[in-house]
Specification:
This protein has about 400 residues and is of the alpha/beta class. It has eleven helices and six strands.
């Protein structure tokens, strides 16, 4: 099964080779949605027939579950279709976040199914009914399990290939259907051969698993809408590419904005020696912006920070301040260190990165730096801008 899925995905990507390209993602999402609609409608009709023949309420409920899955596939298909709409005056950053909303709708459908299954299962526990499972019913349910296993594996593999939370949510839904149908099948077989009516108890256990899964999927799709931290792998790739350029001494304030899969923007401050030719530095910055856009599909904006490296006094005071803040907390880091000299005092101006939860320590840090630079013939004053750690991960 894995080799067949790999082959299908390979065929899908034959004309769309870059899995991170928005066009590729939309194409794969449409294919997945179309497959989901077709197979779920087929399963709905098969289980509806089996439920009518056997008189099993649980099989009928499972058929309705597949009809709901077909609706989810429609949502997935529409979500990918709408997400490819180009930017306009009202949405200058595009519509790619619609894919997150589509994933959230799928999660909501899963939760609704779970709640309804709890209700019907409790009713079965209170009022057990005999079920007549025929060979045809068992065969239809067994075939449904195999089809759903394939759909779960296919959507999971495709979702990970194109980094789609919507397809991964769809894969989880298919996995839940496998468990649901297996529970219905097991309960029917047990009832047939032992006269024990356990449909309701099996339904409650399955419903609890479905609800747990739905909550997890909802969280995964809500997080990027609320501004979750960027993917660490993407941050590292941007950082590595920028630092690989000649004349780059360091970077800070890397910010990534997520407007949906394939629609990400970033900005970063790049430090270069102040003695370098500004035109040369500008050309280097142009190159890194183009490379990140071409290879990572991230629209990067670079701010150029000239760094003074041959000032002995500045270097000495930077070391003094760095030692003071590191002694207070090894997690503290600073950047953009510069000096503004005056006849009676000199301002030491720099940004200091605060770890999450350290906002209340600003006065303590200021006092520690003031002590470290005090007691000298020339007066120094520390002018600190406290940075959010979110920009310097």
């Amino acid at each position: 099964m894995r080799s067949m899925i790999a082959r299908i995905i390979q065929l899908l990507l034959r004309s769309h080779r870059d899995p991170e390209d928005p066009v590729t993602r939309t194409y794969c999402g449409k294919v997945s949605g179309a497959i989901g609609i077709g197979l779920n409608l087929l399963l709905f009709l098969g289980k509806l027939l089996a439920g009518l023949i056997s008189g099993s309420v649980s099989v009928m409920a499972d058929a309705v579950n597949n009809l709901s899955d077909a609706s989810s596939s429609v949502v997935t298909l529409v979500g990918f279709k709408l997400s490819e709409k180009p930017a306009d005056d009202g949405h200058p950053y595009g519509h790619a976040r619609i894919e997150y909303i589509a994933g959230l709708i799928v999660a909501a459908m899963i939760l609704v199914i779970g709640v309804e299954l709890v209700k019907s299962s409790v009713k079965k526990i209170l009022n057990p009914e005999p079920v007549d499972f025929s060979v045809l019913t068992i065969a239809i349910l067994a075939a449904s399990i195999l089809i759903k296993l394939w759909m779960a594996a296919f959507n999971k593999k495709l979702g990970r290939t194109i980094h789609s939370p919507t397809l991964e949510a769809t894969a989880a839904d298919s996995r839940n259907d496998v468990i649901t149908t297996a529970a219905v099948l097991l309960a029917g077989i047990v009832a047939r051969f032992t006269n024990l009516h356990i449909d309701g108890y099996a339904g409650v256990a399955v419903a609890a698993f479905i609800l747990w899964s739905g909550v997890g999927i909802a969280k995964d799709t809500i997080d990027p809408l609320l501004g979750a931290a960027p993917d660490p792998e993407l941050v590292h790739r941007i950082r590595d590419k920028v630092l690989a350029y000649d004349k780059v001494l360091g970077i800070h304030d890397l910010i990534v904005h997520d407007y949906g899969p394939g629609r990400q923007f970033a900005s970063v401050h790049v430090e270069m020696d102040s003695k370098e030719d500004p035109l040369v530095c500008h050309n280097i910055i142009d190159d890194m912006e183009r490379e990140v856009g071409r290879e990572l599909h991230v629209q990067l904006v670079v701010h150029y920070d000239p760094l003074v490296t041959d000032d002995a006094e500045l270097n000495e005071m930077r070391e003094v301040v760095t030692a003071a803040v590191r002694a207070l907390d090894p997690q503290l880091t600073l950047h953009d260190f510069r000096m503004v000299r005056g006849p009676k005092h000199t301002n030491l101006i720099f940004d200091l990165v605060l770890p999450f939860g350290s906002e209340s320590r600003q006065a303590e840090i200021q006092a520690a730096v003031d002590r470290a630079i005090g007691g000298r013939d020339h007066k120094y004053y520390a002018v600190i801008t406290f940075d959010d750690n979110a920009f310097n991960q």
